[in-house]
Structure formats: structure tokens, C-alpha cells
């Protein structure tokens, strides 16, 4: 069953067709990758899916609901989480607090009960704290919990961002270049982690430039070039696809 | 419980100040300490809006004035000419009106302080909603200018409305009997009581806001400040949280306005002035933006000095200068400067570990 279906999605910036008539589906439980040269429209596609950008036309169906045009916080509430190519930490907050914000949707406490520190919010608060700590430990950055997130090393910030997304307990996770800026050991680690996330029952859609990572972990691959979708296939077939080879290596 | 314990030393200082003034015969200081506490109530509300949610407001004197002026007008302007109006009779029937005699022995019919105060705060909250919905879509300079515009409008309205006393303001505002035996009033016989009352209210407000900041809501607000885009993607309804925070800070400002007006027995147009709003922003900045304790401390200190006349005729100039100096040399506030010195020591070990990875 498709958890996400994209139909004839368009996004124009003035005369530029950043995403031009893209259609594909993501089956529940798979790892799907979107690849393509710089400027292919991959991040724009992610922004359209998560609601950060409005599509010019087309349909995005998530868990059977049309979500195009909805606000990001509404889409998040339906179970879609994302990370960013340029990490977006909550500045001024510790790693742990960053992850705790990821639990926002699972909380009930409002302004008044929070101001009064009402007893019925205590259990919820403790659960959020424990869950967040657990996630930091899962990503092996438990010792950084109380450090300002922005003062962490780049790789650790990526881990915090991932923990934060997982804290949302999403059914679909969008990862925008999870291995960017990482060395080969860290990249292999990220690959194992993504497989682990899939095994937790979370569907993963990722944009990635690191081909060995993509080929290793993806179940299916979509190839974009100048906003258009030129191929959608299994990794082995993509590697042999003449048009994909032409795009990446030239004539 | 731990949070309440943190208040205890401060409580001790509050008591100590009172004892010291009694002992040294300088109880008159308590009057300015009381007023400074009410101003600080506004300051800590503004601190949550600016420092934590990251939204500037150059119009908070407007909300203070809405609270103060409405409460003052309703408790002093006689409703005798409208005695037969259905609304006035209804209010009278509900026990919300108070009949008495004015200075010249004439018949006087005014709204009771409790009803006036609740109405004033409610109106301030409603205006905050109406202003906040369009204005909070703006960011940075634009938000600053829009809220400044709101502040100017309130100031000019106050100056132009006879019911609000125009340039004279409103005097003769009656004491506010909060409950039996506790009255907000500037009379010297209840000076000590009012000092403790003001500080009790301020510290209660502080506890409420500290609770808020350490909760799910506080994290969401700080997340909005940290990265709006990521907070949105985490399911934080940004527009709603900004608005709620704006209204909350407006309510704090209005409550401060109501109480201080009853304490002073009157209110004048300078309370609605733009320079007041700038002063509040300056105090929050000195306190260190996202630092409730710092904002409260600076709120009390600077307002106390200002009320004592330490800055003389240069009062507004001093606050302008403070704003410039803080922005240049300590954008994190004076306490931020001290905390900033400590911070690297705490994080260095982790950074070194990172280096080895």
C-alpha cells in the first residue's frame, strides 16, 4: 500500500520549473531515494511534500489524505517528519530540549496547565524526557544531552536532528541529504541507522548524493533532472539506466 | 517544588528590605519598591514575548495604559446621568456598581474596582487578539514598527479623549479592596502591606512564567525563536503560539496598569507614551532577553532608580543610552555577559571529545 502518492506535481518559480510533472509512490515500509544532479529540484520536492512550499499544481496524498496546500504543522500532525540539508537546530536549546520539541505533538499541556505546573502534566513531561533521552542514546549522543545543540560537532547535530524527527513518531520520514558533510565511516553508520529506522516500521524517503549509500540501502530510486522525473526503478536497474549514466557522467 | 525553593532567597531579600527600611526609618523607599514591582510585572511578561518567543513589541505601554485608564475611568466617572439606562440598571442589579458621594457631596455612581479591573484586563486581552492576528505575521523591523504604531495610537487616543482626562489624566482613583483587609492603595498606613502585596503578585507572576518556560509550551516558544521553519515541521502551530504569548504579555501589562493606577490613585498620559514602551524594551534587553530573573531584577532596579529621580530630567535619555550600550556591547544582556563567560568552561570538554571523532 502506498503511504505517499505524488501525482503530476508542479512547482514554478517565475519561469523556472523547479518541479515539473513529477509522479511517484512510496510504499509503506520501504526506503526510497530521490537522486539527481544539483538543481534537480530534490529539496523543492521535499518542501512541497512537507508543506513548506505550496505546489503550483498537482496532488500529494499522504495516508489517503490530500495534503497539498496544508500548513507544515498540520502535515506533521498526520505523521510526516523531516530533516534539513542545512541543519536547522533550535538555537539556544540543548540537544535534549531540541529532541523534546519533537515530542510536541504528543503532549497535551496548554498555557494554563503549564503555568500552574498542574499535576496532570507531570506524567506527560516525564514521559517526554525519558523518550527523548532514549532517542539520544539510540543515536549514541546521550552524553551530549545537556550541551547547547549548536555547539555540537556537525555529525552530532545531524544525529540530534534525526532524533528530533524520530521523536515525532512519524510514519514517514523525509531525510534531506543525511550523509552530507560526513566522512565515509560516519556515512556507513548513517546507512545502518536508516535501515534500523525502517525496521522500526518507519517509511523513509531520502534525498542523497552519496551513491554508495543510496545503492546500499534503497529499495527503489527516483531520478530527477531539471525538475523532471527521468527514471524510477530498483537500484540495480538505475545503475544500468543509460539516461541516468548520461546525466551523471555526460555523453 | 525545586522551582519554588529558588524563589525563597528572593523572598528573604524582600522581607529583609522591608525590615531594613523599618529599622532605619526609610519606609518611604517602599513606595517606589512597590511601584517598581508592578512595572516589573509588565517587564517579565514582555520578557517572555521578546526573549523566549522572539517577538518584539514597542507598544506594551499601550496595554499598560488600556488596563490603567479603563480601570481608572470606570471607577471615577459617575454614571448618575445614565442612571435610567437599561445597561446601568442591569450592572447595578448585579452589584457591580458602587454608590457614594463625591468631594462636593454630590451623588456618585461608579463601577466597583473588581468589576472595572476585570473589564479592563479583558479589553486589553481582546485588543491584543485583534492587533496580534494581523501584526504577528510580520517579523523583525516590521513587527517593531507595527507595534510602535499601535502604541502611538493608544497614546494619542488617551490624549484626545475627554472621558480619559486628555492631558490631565485621571486622578481620584479609589483604593482597590482586593479582599477583606487587603487594599491596593498608596496611603502610608498600608504602605508595608502594599509592598508585600505587590511583591507577592510579582513573584507569583514570575513563578507562573518560569513554569510556563519549563513546559511543553515554553519549549515550543523557544523553538519558534530558534528556527521557525523547523518548529513548524515539528507540529508547532506558530501563529497560535505567537498570538497566545502576545495576549499573555498584554494581560500582564494590563494587570500591572490596573494595580499601579489604584496604588497611585491616578494615571497620566505619560504612562501610555512611546518612551515608556522603549524603556520596557531596554529593561528586558539589559536583563538579558531570554532571562526572566534578569529581566525582573533589572525591572526593579532601573524602575526604582528612575522613580527615585536618580536620572533627573535625563530619565528617558538614560534608557535610550542603556539600549544603545547594551545592543553594542552585551546583546545577551548584563547577566548574559556573565553567563557567557561561564558557558565555554562547561562545553569545552565536549567540544574536545568531538575533535577526536
CATH class of the largest domain in chain A: Alpha Beta
| Quaternary class | heterodimer
Backbone shape of chain A: globular
CATH superfamily of the largest domain in chain A: P-loop containing nucleotide triphosphate hydrolases
Q: What number is the mean pLDDT of chain A?
A: 92
- Report how far the terminal alpha carbons of chain A are from each other: 38 Å
Helix percent of chain B reads over 70%
Protein structure class of chain A? alpha/beta
Poorly predicted parts of chain A: none
Helix content of chain A: 25-40%
Tell me what the structure shows.
The complex is a heterodimer of chains A (251) and B (357). Chain A has 251 residues and is α/β, with parallel strands linked by helices. Chain A is built from 10 helices and 10 strands. Chain A has helices at residues 42-50, 72-77, 95-102, 111-115, 122-138, 154-166, 184-199, 211-217, 235-240, 242-249; strands at 2-13, 16-27, 31-35, 57-62, 65-66, 80-82, 172-176, 203-207, 220-225, 228-233. Chain A has a 6-stranded mixed beta sheet with strand order 6-7-8-3-9-10, with helices on both faces. In chain A, helix 3 packs parallel to helix 6 (154-166), helix 5 (122-138) crosses helix 6 and helix 7 (184-199) packs parallel to helix 8 (211-217). Chain B has a domain at 32-273. Chain B starts with a helix and ends with a helix. In chain B, the strands form 3 sheets. Chain B has a two-stranded antiparallel sheet. In chain B, a hairpin with a 2-residue loop joins strand 4 (176-179) and strand 5 (182-184). In chain B, helix 1 packs antiparallel against helix 7. Classes of the chains: A alpha/beta (251), B mainly alpha (357). Chain A binds chain B through residues 50, 52, 71-73, 76-77, 81-82, 84, 88-93, 97, 100-105, 107, 109-111, 114-117, 121, 124-125, 128, 143-144, 147-148, 151-153, 155-156, 164, 168, and chain B through 3, 208-209, 211-212, 215-220, 222-223, 225-227, 229-238, 244, 248, 290, 343, 347, 350-351, 353-354, 357.
